[in-house]
Structures are given as C-alpha cells and as structure tokens.
Amino acid sequence: MSQLEERFAAHFGRAAEVVARAPGRLEILGNHTDYNQGFVLSCAVEQHIAVAMAATPGRVCRLKDFRDGSERTFQLDEIGPVARRDWSNYIKGVIVELRKRGRDIGGFDAGILSTVPLSAGMSSSAALEVAFSFAFSRLFDIEMAPAEWARVGQGVENYYLGLKSGLLDQFSSIFGRKNALILSDFRSVEVRRTVALPVGYEVVVVNSMVKHNLVDSEYNVRRQDCESATAKLAEIYPGVQALRDVSVEQLEAAKDRLELREYRRAAHVVGENDRVLRGVEALDRGDVAAFGALLFASHESSRVNFENSTPELDYLVELAHTIPGCLGARLSGGGFGGITIHLVEESRAGEYAERISAAYRLQTGRTPEVIHCAIGNGATVQEL
Ligand code: GLA
Fold first, then answer.
1. Angle at 122 between CA 143 and CA 163, to 5 degrees
2. I need a surface site. Which of 20, 91, 194, 267 has the fewest CB within 10 A?
3. Residue 270 belongs to what H/E stretch?
4. Active site residue 274
5. SS3 of 51, please?
6. CATH number of 2-195+377-383
C-alpha cells in the first residue's frame, strides 16, 4: 500500500478505490502562445499531485490534504460561487465543468498528497484539476477524450476562477512523456511530436519566491491586448484568425497600424512561435547553444515586449548569463513572478545551484528554492 493509501485508510476508516496522479509542468519555450493558437515546447515533471478517492452513498464530498492537514467538506448540491483563494475551488470547478457537459458525480472522500510547489509557475492548480478529473472519470465512469479533460481544467480557470488561461498546463499534465519535451500545437490541440532534451543537460528551476497569483495579475489584460492586435491584423491580412497566423515580417510591416502596446504584445507571441519552431530544429541538429540562446531571447522579449517579467526574474536570468555551465534561461509560465528555468550542464548543476542561490540571496535577501526537475509521464489513474 502506498503512503497515500495508508493515510487515506487511517483518516477515512476505509480503503480508497482509485488513485490518480497528475504532474506539474514546465513551459520550456513558447510563452503566452497557447491561447493564440500557437506552439509550445513543454514537459511534465516528476513532481505531482496524487489523489486517493472512494465513493460515498450520499451527496457529501470530504477532502483532506495530507500535506498541511487542511480539510474541506461540501455538498454536491450547494457548490455555489468561488470562495476567494480556497484550494477546494479547483475541485468544485471540475464538478461544475462536468455538469456543463451533462455529467455528474456522487459523493466521495478524497485524500491528497502533493510534491508540486504551490503558486510558483509549475501548475499545481492544473495538476489538482487533472488528478481529480482522472479520479472522477474512473470512479464515476465518465468517458471523455484526454484533450476534453484538459478543456475541463481550462474551464475551471476560465469560468469558475476568472483566469482566461489557455490549455497548456492541463494539456502538459495529461500528455507529458517521460524524458522528452512535447511540441504541442494549440490550433489542432494535439501533441505534434516529442523532442529529446540533449544528453548531458538538465533543466534547473529557480523560484524567485515572489508569489505568483495569476488571477490578480495582468494576465487577462495581456490576453485582451493579444485579441485586439489580432483583430487589427485580421483587417490587414485576410485569413488571420489568431497571432499564430502572423509572420514576423507581416507584423513588422503592420507596425504603424497597431498601438505600440498591441505591437509589443504581438511581437512577443509571434516571436515565441518562431522561436519554438527554431528551437526544435536546433535540438534536432544537436545545437544546444542555439537552443539556449533562444531561451535567453524569449526572456528578453517577456521583459521588453510582453512586460510579464519582474525585477527578481530578470535578475535570475542576468545571473544565468554570468555563471558557467548555463546555456539559457527564461521565466516560465504566466510570469509576473514565479519561476525561471535554466538549461544547465548536468555535471555542473550542483555548483550552478549553489552559486545562483548565493548571488540571488545577496541581492534580494530572499533564498530561492532550487528544484532539479526530472521529466516525467502524464497523468494516470489506477483502480485499487
Ligand atoms: C499560464 C497559463 C497557460 C499559459 C502560460 C503562459 O501558465 O495557465 O495557459 O498561457 O501561463 O504561456
């Protein structure tokens, strides 16, 4: 019996019936491209959320988080609106999204264990949504295509929580592949292919420790800017449905027709799509240096064009330029705080972590969390 199953049994006085696990994710390249129908290179990580669950006869749902001991209880027929900053929102939201699709569940007991850092930019919220989705699917016999489950999680964010995010987080948590990056196309909503990370390198995550709460950030405003830029570009270039359809050259030629803010936001997204495709080519030919340079270019574009960086994230990326062993670094995920990712020579990763921590602490007074990430598989569910 796993530790989670044991704790479930001890707490609820009965055995769990299913266990689902869903990983966090890292956005490797392709920032804010997902809701612009573009490309992203991402991976699932070994850090994950595991949920043990058993059905109960009534309409009561009991949740226990074994990490911090917190508990929630709610009635299926009294889900109501979102409660500010409450982790049960993610679970209630999944139930609301399922109902929109004509599916319902019965009462249940659920116990949770997690190794995904919270609110950092590794998508702990998507992992929670996907883990519960997969557990519900097995326990209550709900059949849906995996991409539709990703939309359920996105729906929780978009409609229940009010964050107009794309599909990247849930999609990566579901479709991640061990030891590989996935190249996703968010127009066709599919994994185009897997891409091997070069041998001898690893992704080191450095958390700026400045909290990341996208609902309160300018995330939705950035999305609006992208939409208004798209509408103007569509008037100039018929056939443009999303920033995905605009080339770097077309955007430059149309610069005067956009407000400077719209141009910059679009330049970031159009540039990111281009960098993702060039990044895959670079990895295919084993050119790690070129790939690393694209990571740095991505961060610079976040800083200047998309303005979703922070002084702390900028400082971590500046340090990456100066510490030996790092080929590229950038903010990862929504931005406005959270984590940076660093592509580092494996043999120097330990020393790199020490040096960047010391320098960051000295400059900011904060001790950064450094996480060595192994690339893991997507979500699973198992009947016990
Ligand atoms: C957050 C969102 C994703 C995506 C990234 C930025 O993680 O949830 O949908 O937009 O930001 O690429």
1. 70
2. 194
3. helix 260-284
4. no
5. strand
6. 3.30.230.10
Nearest protein Cα to ligand 1, atom 8: 165
The half-sphere exposure of 119 on its side-chain side, counting CA atoms within 13 A, is 14
In degrees and rounded to multiples of 5, residue 23 shows phi and psi of -85, 160
Distance 2 CA to ligand 1 centre (A): 32
Ligand 1 centroid from CA 266, angstroms: 16
Give CA separation, 231 vs 42, 223, 234, 258, 368, in Å.
28, 12, 5, 10, 41
The CATH fold assigned to 197-374 is Alpha-Beta Plaits (3.30.70)
Q: What angle do CA 204, 209, 210 make, to 5 degrees?
A: 130
What distance in Å separates the CA atoms of residue 42 and residue 197, rounded to the nearest whole number? Answer: 11
- Cα–Cα distances in Å, from 61 out to 71, 74, 77, 265, 380? 11, 5, 10, 43, 22
Predicted confidence at residue 212, as pLDDT, reads 62
Each residue of 92-101: pLDDT tens digit? 999 999 999 9
SS3 call for 62: strand
Of 34, 65, 109, 169, catalytic: 169
pLDDT tens by residue, 144-203: 999 999 999 999 999 999 999 999 999 999 999 999 999 999 999 999 999 999 899 999
State the pLDDT at residue 84.
79
The residues that bridge with 196 in the sheet, in sequence order, are 180
CB-based contacts of 56, cutoff 8 Å, min separation 6:
62, 106, 107, 108, 109
Ligand 1 midpoint to CA 127 (Å): 13
Q: Compute, in angstroms, the gap from residue 35 CA to the centroid of ligand 1.
A: 8
Please list every protein residue whose CB sits less than 6 Å from any atom of ligand 1: 27, 31-32, 34-35, 165-166, 168-169, 333-334
Domain boundaries, the chain: 2-195+377-383, 197-374
Cβ 139 vs Cβ 108: under 8 Å: yes
Taking the CA of residue 121 as reference, the ligand 1 atom at the shortest distance is 7
